[in-house]
Amino acid sequence: MALDDDIRILAGAALFEGFTQEQLRLLAFGAENLNVAAGRLIYAEGDSADCGFLIVSGSVRLVHGVGNAAVELQVLGRNAILGELALITDTSRPTSAIAATDVSLIRLNRRLFRRILEEYPDAAHLLHERIAADLQELVAKIARLSSRFGE
Question: Which residues form the Cyclic nucleotide-binding domain (predicted)?
Fold first, then answer.
């Protein structure tokens, strides 16, 4: 894909909403385009995570557990980001990601992403606000579901 195509695709992801063209260009410049065939493993649960992936096309299954104990948690499609926490901090993969269909991905490097946040504090502020809002939404969702769990 051309650099301008990658920039346009990155701009469509909610995580990068509010990033400038310059910031998106830097991110795209250091990104890697990957194609993964249906049924192939993208990453395994427990693996060290040093990057995130943006789904350009196709769909990806997130699975927890192994073998007969494996449970499909979610299927993600276009513009979803896999492993966004890995863009910010050292972590391990909480799930396995498996290509549900043939999938095109943009692999996003943590080192470059962190450099952009350091050089552009406005982007870091936007990301902080987005993460805080997501956390508040998660806490509210847990509170709504708390009655389903025993005391």
Answer: 15-134
